[in-house]
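Before the break, one more example. Copy the sequence into your notebook; we will annotate it together after we see the structure.
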Amino acid sequence: MQHVTASDLLPQSVAQSTEMIQAHETTVREVFEDETLLVLQSDGPSIISSLKREEEFFSHSQDYRFSMEQVEEIHHHLQDTITRLARLADTRMNKLHNCLQLREYEEECHKVSTQQALVNGSWDIGLVIGCLTLVTLTDLPHATWTDLPHVTLTDLPHVT
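Here is what the structure looks like once it is written out:
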């Protein structure tokens, strides 16, 4: 389940993004539809309530009271963990969808620049610099704007 919330794993293509989104959805569904978890969530409070009613018969036992406190604490911790896991899974899904959009834009940018170069034999300077910047930043995840190579008009093939 750790891979579901691992934010350091980001896909490098549209296909990989789609695969990771599907894998994430499958894993999350399997976890939250686990029969044991569902029973604990639905029946847990009623079982604890039933055990509390029995407490009057065992009220003289310190062990029983201590055990009841432990059971309630564990159930509360389980509910908190489930809530936290759901939030983490949603956050991860949002990041994967954002990454998919970025990869789609990246691929579209590459297609457009390649088509323009092939059809016209010329380059649109804004498109080229935008694509170079996007590719450079995604290829070098720790790069900053000052790390980017300086591109001049003479560096680009046939600018119109």
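The first helix runs from residue 2 to 5. Confidence is low (pLDDT under 50) at residues 135-160. Try to locate both features in your own notes.
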